[in-house]
Design brief:
Layout (H helix, E strand, L loop, with lengths): L4 H4 L23 H17 L4 H35 L7 H19 L2
Length: about 120
């Protein structure tokens, strides 16, 4: 039997099945519904630039600000959760548990560096 890393990382209360399946890879930093709304707002700004450049720029700036705020909020929450997962553990904690936290820090940091 092969080790399924994505399944092993799911919360224990998550039952496998068509509705409980996750796509492979890390969770998005901005939920897809929010990402779609912000993408539409930016596209609207691009499409209306010729008719009303200032309003289009204001709309693009607002979309940018909202994306930035959402990213900051998501990253702060992930940092809080990661920190809590290892900081308060017993000094005799298994190295494998600490290694898992380190992998999570590495993954999120590398994703930010690729932006």
């Amino acid at each position: 039997m092969m080790y399924d890393q994505s399944r092993a990382q799911q919360p224990p209360d998550k039952q496998p099945g068509s509705s409980g399946r996750r796509t492979p890879g890390p969770e998005p930093l901005i939920p897809s519904d929010e990402r779609d709304k912000l993408t539409q707002r930016l596209q609207h700004a691009l499409n209306t630039f010729a008719d009303s450049p200032r309003e289009a720029l204001e709309e693009a700036e607002t979309a940018f600000d909202e994306v930035t705020a959402q990213l900051m909020s998501t990253l702060a929450e992930r940092r809080r959760l990661l920190h809590a997962a290892w900081q308060d553990q017993d000094p005799g904690t298994e190295p494998e548990e600490l290694r898992h936290a380190l992998r999570q820090y590495r993954e999120i940091t590398q994703r930010m560096l690729r932006m």
